[in-house]
């Protein structure tokens, strides 16, 4: 009977199925994308270490995880390893970064790092396979990945330049693939001979990065590792190949991948929340329309528990059907999300899409549970209705007049808003987040009363404007405030989050612009200019040559590196403190460490505090803090003097050169000379002060655009919920609409009434969501500011108004189809309907 009833009411339940479908499809797409990322990472490291039974490396680690950085080891260790029992072959590697120039003289762009290393002749120890040409023979020969060769129009025998980081004229002798793919993810690859790699990448013919080892047949990995460990000198360690693979995979999964999955899961949860609100509203309308049917069943002998089980079974069946369809679409959703990330400038180096049975089961299970939970309160309420009351009473929505609900809603909202403000003032992210959720819940509870109040306020304006159709729509809203509030609540959640992130983005931009504008006193900036250098940095010769240009007062070359500070791995900025002080308002002094105020407050440091810094060569120095500064993007949290750094790591790249022109210098001539130098290093970008600040701010906009795309589906689900609510309302009011037509209302007037209802519903959800989003944005910005981040609160009013207008117009569009359907009703047929 339950299934037959569902089939009979299938048209009314389409909206509910669509909400379940979209929510589960988004969840399944995210699960598929996460599975694809995990599979790609596993494949990458398994391919890299296939055939490697042991890796010999430096015992000094200054950065762990996916970005593990270790110092070099003496090349003499290679002979020691080769002589160890059980070793079939051992090959040394010198690793670094190198950027390839194409046949047109421009740098070959890519998606990831610009990896460079040593070509290993032993195929078992080398994941790369030459598909054209041959292996390098001399120090000026290289093998490159097929993707870079294709993009740069390079073939075996081509002569080109690589920046490693200094320009090196080389001959491409071979083109290789990685595990059957044209490249290793989005990274480019350059392989020298060992001598070439030592000279160009390490600048030290007596050092190598590591040694990969292949065991003799029948020798266990543990035995091999033990034999090699016994022969190694102090400061050098060995690890098994399988263990290295596990550690590398775990490092990525515990670092980037965990953050990435959490980021996606948050938006999947938001989409499911909005879908649950739409499901609840749709099921409530359908169940209310079946009150007489359920009452007749009760009169005929059905128990309340039977009615309740029937309603829950209906919800479960609907959830199952919608979830299965959503999971089926999840594969396409994963591919769509991957394409969306690429279109927004955050491409994921993935091949294909992996979708597991476990992901499918999770998607179906979550969809069914969410549907049942969203409909359970309605099912319980309807099953408790006395049979005679359902048979005789006319349904009247009194939720707006419910004093208990209004008091509860006001109390929860007030406590939540106060808690949000308290958390913001006390810089507590947890308190602010929990209180914000409470505020949102309170507003949903208060929804019917708020809707009725807003409708009355709107009625005053409409009365003065003499808009008859709008006043009829306003009175219809007053008749069903709970229904309208529930439809608007889904939109409120989506718009609130969009507005919140818009405020956060504007606040970050304003903070960065203000801080960087005040701290940076230079005139020009030379940088990698995008993806060409892959964040690997470029030659410090650029800073030296720019400093020699007539009219240049200071050229501060600034790079980044990894060190252990106070026992923890940190990314540090490396710069000459004297030159940096002329380009930025940071004056630490020679031999002194500069630290951001945020970090200093966290550790209780102050000017003069002494901090232990461990460098890549394993040595530790205790440096005094010479300056505290406001954290800003180009400088990070720590600045180490270049002379101190070079004593431990002479191979230092720069990521930017900050130029201060001399007083009275011809800035145009200086810029032309600097641009000429930059062009000689593969086309480095040269930007003025304003452009540099704007580009730095624009970095946050990319992530913000990703957030908007992820929230778009939640808003779409909410808009469809409004359309479904109006369609069901039209179905319930056939007789009413027929009577309106009978007393003279035309089709145009009926359409306008329904559209006004859609407009009022969308306006309620959009405006309340925008106000709530601005409040949440202020709270989070204040939390960051009070915790030492220096955040400035800024509201992008134009964007907020645009969000409201788009939301209202979307609601109006959502009401178009129900309005057309209402206008097409035959008056006599509608009046005769029951």
Taking pLDDT < 50 over at least 5 consecutive residues as the criterion, the unreliable ranges are: none
Report the major sheet.
8 strands, mixed
Q: What is the molecular shape?
A: elongated
Which secondary-structure class do the elements indicate?
A: alpha+beta
The helical percent reads 55-70%
What is the number of beta strands?
A: 25
Name the beta content range: 15-25%
Distance between the termini: 22 Å
Mean pLDDT: 83
Query: How many helix segments?
Result: 27
Quick tags:
834 residues; alpha+beta; six-stranded mixed β-barrel; 27 helices
Summarize the structure.
The chain is an alpha+beta fold. It contains 27 helices and 25 strands.
Description:
With 834 residues, this protein is α+β, with helices and mostly antiparallel strands. Helix content is 58%, strand content 16%. α22 (689-732) crosses α24 (747-789) and α24 (747-789) packs antiparallel against α26 (816-823). The chain starts with a helix and ends with a helix. The mean pLDDT is 83.
What secondary-structure arrangement, pairings included, does this model have?
Blueprint: H1 2-8, H2 14-49, E1 54-58, E2 61-63, E3 69-70, E4 73-74, H3 77-82, E5 87-93, E6 96-97, E7 99-100, E8 114-118, E9 128-133, E10 141-145, H4 146-152, E11 159-163, E12 167-178, E13 188-192, H5 194-202, E14 207-208, E15 210-215, H6 221-231, E16 236-240, H7 241-289, H8 291-299, H9 304-343, H10 357-383, H11 387-392, H12 403-425, H13 429-445, H14 447-465, H15 468-479, H16 481-519, E17 524-527, H17 541-547, E18 552-565, E19 568-575, H18 577-583, E20 593-596, H19 597-603, E21 610-614, E22 620-629, E23 638-641, H20 642-646, E24 656-661, H21 667-679, E25 685-688, H22 689-732, H23 734-742, H24 747-789, H25 797-814, H26 816-823, H27 827-832
Parallel strand pairs: 8-13, 10-12, 19-23, 20-22
Antiparallel strand pairs: 1-15, 1-16, 2-3, 4-14, 5-15, 6-8, 7-11, 9-12, 10-13, 11-12, 17-24, 17-25, 18-19, 18-21, 18-24, 20-23, 21-22
Helix pairs in contact: 2-7, 2-9, 2-10, 2-22, 7-10, 7-16, 7-22, 9-10, 12-13, 12-24, 13-24, 14-15, 14-16, 15-24, 16-22, 16-24, 16-25, 22-24, 22-25, 22-26, 24-25, 24-26
